[in-house]
């Protein structure tokens, strides 16, 4: 009887330790900075958790050349909030892919947002492009389809049901090349939002790498669905690695508004870096200008 109980306990433990997906894992990053912020009322010093996150992702091969995959990701505030305010939902979905392309269902970044590739080089910091531009949407009740790549070109569409919006919304894109500019020297994308989170918008993204310098440019037009107000702006940025240092600069506009940022990252290990940046936004008298200076640390796992 004792041996039987031992065998049963071992079987239960084995079943609990076996992942639902054959290839599954935990990942995340902690990104924290000490920051001086001046938003018009004088500078204050604060500790910022810059979209630190924890996630689970996995995949498993199915029949007929198909693969099922999933992601379940949360934003974790490691500096300010606690208890239920500490967690915020990020991309959480299940999908299937094969020769037809891939379909993803759940909460996910729209294809308009994804079309930026890796060219928002201050993403999650004060100079994130969402500060001035609309379109950086992560939508619930969404379905996204991406086609196979044809000579490096990929097409896709995101559909958001009217449960999330007052009306259904769509986001379409066409992309070409290497979004991270690591394996290829070129990246290009065009994306269009229709009634997504109250806006129609078009974004063109271009990136290239010349003699070790990564260059990026974006142009965006956006129109509020309700008011019909139209705005446009552009962005240019550059990155250059010198040893373990990555030097970065970015300039972004929206009509009379503008923001400029300079920063530097310093690799401390394979998964760890120190960083610093200075950001200044000019709102041309419409509201108070904003200035930020930060130094921080990021570790990925």
Written overview of the protein:
The chain has a 16-stranded antiparallel beta barrel with strand order 1-3-4-5-6-7-8-9-10-11-12-13-14-15-16-17. The protein has helices spanning 2-17, 111-114, and strands at 23-38, 43-49, 53-61, 67-76, 87-98, 101-109, 138-146, 153-160, 169-177, 186-196, 199-210, 213-224, 230-242, 245-254, 257-267, 272-282, 290-300. 7% of the residues lie in helices and 60% in strands. It has a single domain, classed as Porin. It has two helices and 17 strands. The N and C termini lie far apart (44 Å). By secondary structure, the chain is mainly beta.
CATH class: Mainly Beta
Please give the largest β-sheet.
16 strands, antiparallel, barrel
Oligomer kind: single chain
User: What is the gyration radius calculated from CA atoms?
Assistant: 22 Å
CATH topology tier name: Porin
The second-level CATH architecture is Beta Barrel
**Main sheet: strand order:** 1-3-4-5-6-7-8-9-10-11-12-13-14-15-16-17
Helix content: under 10%
N- to C-terminal distance: 44 Å
Unreliable stretches covering 5 or more consecutive residues: 1-18
The CATH fourth-level homologous superfamily: Porin
